[in-house]
């Protein structure tokens, strides 16, 4: 393998790049992975830990390799956010797990959703979260119950394998893939092929860090390819051939970066190999010295897309890829597929809003029943990247009946702008990294804004995040709240947020503005949102969206 010329003056030595000969682990996480592959923990769970219980789990497995099977220890109840950075992991954790069920492409049958609901009800205290990565997460899971949960998931084609860890995570696709007539291309087949070939492959079970993939031909770019590690975005080339534009290097957290177009046209039969080539570059050239510097976005920042393309072609594909066009801009402002959409077969898809992704297993089971009752194909359901669900195949004559049946459970096909646009991460309730509570607060926030601004009908994204890690994507929201401890008027340390305004994806994408460290307490969030949104309604120009307004607004309008 040739060593490419680096485009940065940053010294190579010590970055831990395998391709440059630095194989020795440089931090505890790399040592943990070298000592035992994360995939090997599955057998120890089945043979040992399910029988010994929580106290019998090896610490390296407990706080490291368990993630390869979709398991994190959850936060012990009652520990305030101010203790997050003070206590050790073993002091923060409970003897229960968060478990993530991997749902590639967000595609579910009613049978699969019924199994997911039953697991929540029986093993997870009837709590579940639909995530913004199309997964379903559980809490309160005991290690003794994991083998039975796996058996049930696998009986309907699901698993928790590589749902977490330094591996290829769940692969996103448009929930309406193959369903809507205006899509550029249906990515379902190439995604399924890639998952089947590489999920659980030891060749990719030790990456520098997480690896997020999307493959979609959605005209709305609903998988948000701008912020994924690697994305295949549907395009049509000059010859009229549908394929994919390759984007690499997106990611948020504390150093947000947008993905870069590599500039190639990828035909459908090339997708799996190109994905493997990109993943191999990350494995071999990714920075392993520091966990904070180990995402592909940092390598992309140093290399640039031209060099990435050259290494991909020369060292991994051993073939040239043709130049390709950029995709068309997103067709609609909102990417969540909420509402009633006409399918190309003449039936309808009904997308509906949960309560910031939080739901019960009992209600998931009920949704499975409704999908069977109203759908013409036995019950097909999809998860979205906006913490929403979609029921497919509903005849015209039954649409309003299903809208009403869902509304009985506070599942809204036609939600308010605030209900539709609000997302929240797991937060302090269960997450060991969180500083503030998020789920319940976000629900109270959108309900209060509905009361105060009942006529507000512009699309508005309000993302509530419990820490700087951006699981709820606060930098790309119209109004993004990053959880932190702040001081109130009395000088007391309380839960609060740093405010980010005007983040948006698509044309002229940008991350939200921060205003001289502007912070508010949790109790002030509704007042703040009302004040800023009323200012927008008063000052906006015709057709002006909130993000565009923020871009030209004076600071005093926004603080």
TrEMBL record:
<feature type="region of interest" description="Disordered">
    <location>
        <begin position="1"/>
        <end position="35"/>
    </location>
</feature>
<dbReference type="InterPro" id="IPR051329">
    <property type="entry name" value="NIR_SIR_4Fe-4S"/>
</dbReference>
<keyword id="KW-0004">4Fe-4S</keyword>
<keyword id="KW-0411">Iron-sulfur</keyword>
<comment type="similarity">
    <text>Belongs to the nitrite and sulfite reductase 4Fe-4S domain family.</text>
</comment>
<dbReference type="Pfam" id="PF01077">
    <property type="entry name" value="NIR_SIR"/>
</dbReference>
<dbReference type="GO" id="GO:0020037">
    <property type="term" value="F:heme binding"/>
</dbReference>
<feature type="compositionally biased region" description="Basic and acidic residues">
    <location>
        <begin position="330"/>
        <end position="343"/>
    </location>
</feature>
<feature type="compositionally biased region" description="Polar residues">
    <location>
        <begin position="1"/>
        <end position="10"/>
    </location>
</feature>
<dbReference type="InterPro" id="IPR005117">
    <property type="entry name" value="NiRdtase/SiRdtase_haem-b_fer"/>
</dbReference>
<dbReference type="InterPro" id="IPR045854">
    <property type="entry name" value="NO2/SO3_Rdtase_4Fe4S_sf"/>
</dbReference>
<feature type="domain" description="Nitrite/Sulfite reductase ferredoxin-like">
    <location>
        <begin position="94"/>
        <end position="155"/>
    </location>
</feature>
<keyword id="KW-0349">Heme</keyword>
<feature type="domain" description="Nitrite/sulphite reductase 4Fe-4S">
    <location>
        <begin position="165"/>
        <end position="317"/>
    </location>
</feature>
<protein>
    <recommendedName>
        <fullName>assimilatory sulfite reductase (ferredoxin)</fullName>
        <ecNumber>1.8.7.1</ecNumber>
    </recommendedName>
</protein>
<dbReference type="GO" id="GO:0051539">
    <property type="term" value="F:4 iron, 4 sulfur cluster binding"/>
</dbReference>
<dbReference type="GO" id="GO:0050311">
    <property type="term" value="F:sulfite reductase (ferredoxin) activity"/>
</dbReference>
<feature type="domain" description="Nitrite/Sulfite reductase ferredoxin-like">
    <location>
        <begin position="342"/>
        <end position="408"/>
    </location>
</feature>
<comment type="function">
    <text>Catalyzes the reduction of sulfite to sulfide, a step in the biosynthesis of sulfur-containing amino acids and cofactors.</text>
</comment>
<dbReference type="InterPro" id="IPR036136">
    <property type="entry name" value="Nit/Sulf_reduc_fer-like_dom_sf"/>
</dbReference>
<feature type="domain" description="Nitrite/sulphite reductase 4Fe-4S">
    <location>
        <begin position="419"/>
        <end position="557"/>
    </location>
</feature>
<dbReference type="InterPro" id="IPR006067">
    <property type="entry name" value="NO2/SO3_Rdtase_4Fe4S_dom"/>
</dbReference>
<keyword id="KW-0560">Oxidoreductase</keyword>
<keyword id="KW-0479">Metal-binding</keyword>
<keyword id="KW-0883">Thioether bond</keyword>
<dbReference type="GO" id="GO:0046872">
    <property type="term" value="F:metal ion binding"/>
</dbReference>
<dbReference type="Pfam" id="PF03460">
    <property type="entry name" value="NIR_SIR_ferr"/>
</dbReference>
<dbReference type="InterPro" id="IPR006066">
    <property type="entry name" value="NO2/SO3_Rdtase_FeS/sirohaem_BS"/>
</dbReference>
<feature type="region of interest" description="Disordered">
    <location>
        <begin position="322"/>
        <end position="343"/>
    </location>
</feature>
<keyword id="KW-0408">Iron</keyword>
